[in-house]
Amino acid sequence: MNHVLVLPILLPMFIGSLMLCLPRLSLATPRSLGLVATVLLLAVSMYLVHLADQGVLHSYALGNWQAPFGIVLMLDRLSAMLLLVTAVLAIFALVYAVRGDDARGKNFHSLFQFQLMGINGAFLTGDLFNLFVFFEILLIASYALLLHGGGAERVRAGIHYVVLNLLGSALFLLAVGVMYGITGTLNMADMAVKVAAASPDDAALLGAAGLLLLLVFGLKAAFLPMYFWLPRAYASASAPVAALFAIMTKVGLYSIMRVYILIYGEQAGSIANLASDWLWPLALLTILCGVIGALAAVTLQSLLAYLVVASVGSLLAGIALGTPQALSAALYYLIHSTWVTGAMFLVADLISRQRGEKAGKLVQGPMLLQPLLLGALFFMGAIALAGLPPFSGFLGKLMLLQALQPGYQALLLWSVVLLGGLLTLVALSRAGSTLLWRTGLVVLGSAERDNVRTLAAAGLLSSVLLLVLFAAPVLSYVQATAAQLLDLAPYMQLVNAGETP
Amino acid sequence: MEALFAVTLGILSASGVYLLLRARTFPVVMGLTLLSYAVNLFLFAMGRLTSGAPAVIGRSAEYADPLPQALVLTAIVIGFAITAFLLVLSLRGLGELKSDHVDGEQR
Lengths: 501, 107
Description:
The complex is a heterodimer of chains A (about 500) and B (about 110). Chain A is mostly helical and about 500 residues long. Chain A is built from 21 helices and four strands. Chain B has about 110 residues and is an all-alpha fold. Chain B has helices at about 1-20, 25-45, 65-95. In chain B, about 30% of the residues are buried.
């Protein structure tokens, strides 16, 4: 057993708890502790990506209780990749936060670490109930982070967010209960074996449980009937928190990939590929609703939040198609959209800080203190978000469009994705010209300028260029990931290998 | 026993959903609590309903599945903590938004 596998969970847990024990007088210690821990997390994630890229599945039996009896952590290419994406995002969000945002409420740094612990745990666990537990950990931390800084708008968004997720947790437990009642196991790989061998009588119940789970994951991933909590929550969160939340919808998407490829995949008999019939139309409608919302948004932050919804739609379309090409396109697009959305929330905050009371409202405002620099960052991010060359958004969308053979499905996907891209461009250019060009002549005295914040935003935004420059290794990694995901046999063997004689 | 159990769960969840749809923070919290009772009982029942069977192997010929009991314990702890958080948040909302509607607007 390789003990590094459990580090992405233990490291944030211990550092976060340690911060709670420290005297609360100064922020200096938690700040440096948090930064060091996140950098260490990045190093661990890089090592795990290297480990996973050897193509073997790694499992870690917690407390040495062997699968399927104990809880296992499971590392494959997909989870390693998402750990790395999270760590990179977290570093830039944290660097941005230590410039003052963390002082607006208590315990920001502990909560940030606990949030990372929950996210990493959800990506690593191989056990369905454990997935529920890590969902709860990341949610509890996110409730508090969302409210960080206080104010009526955050409380309003927070109540919706907490109530909806509490309801989601109840449904999650119902689904897990039914699945345990029929299969007698909670280990996902073992459950896949049991579902494949289930009697036809149980298929209906298993299918119902599967669709309940889809509802829960859909609430986290925020696709069509379940996304209405997202725009308000993301738009009202403070900038570093909103940037970190860019990974939260991906936790839902990750769970969809894990459960509906492994448990309800090809082998599941009459309920095989249960989710894809639902996901395909919902994905396309989600893209449309997202961009319509973006067109109607009145603040830059809510515009970006609606673009998160639209990007979830594109990712979901790739997952619903389920072919290796479509999955690898979706995975590449996932990396791109997480980082660029995070960066754009930071850029939006930089712009808002130089507009006084008007903040992110899309109305004529004062001249910005750094119109050229912020304009360039906004322009770069907007091009990447809209999926235009030369940045990574273009590559991701192109791969997704090419994943389909010409036909009815391709016609739908092409028109929806391209129309979505066009409307995104319209929304962003309207926002950009209002914020950057339709300005007064004087710069506000209260305009803030902070080079470290700008550097954090620019650093994360540079990923759109780096993802293109290093497209070859990234693409070969995501293609290998998609191939590994669709090859179920090694996952199933993981359980048998662990069985004690 | 199964029928009684099922009816109880049904009444609990129906009341929970009704209260949830009232869209005022206090009924919503009560509704979520009732719903989580129903869910916990449901999870418990997934270990099959037996009476008088110990959850330890070897004490008697028949034994209860201990795993759902452990799951229920975990679920209760988590649900309790989040409900407490939601209560505090609702009170905060009442103070800041001057309304107990979940949308934070006077209706």
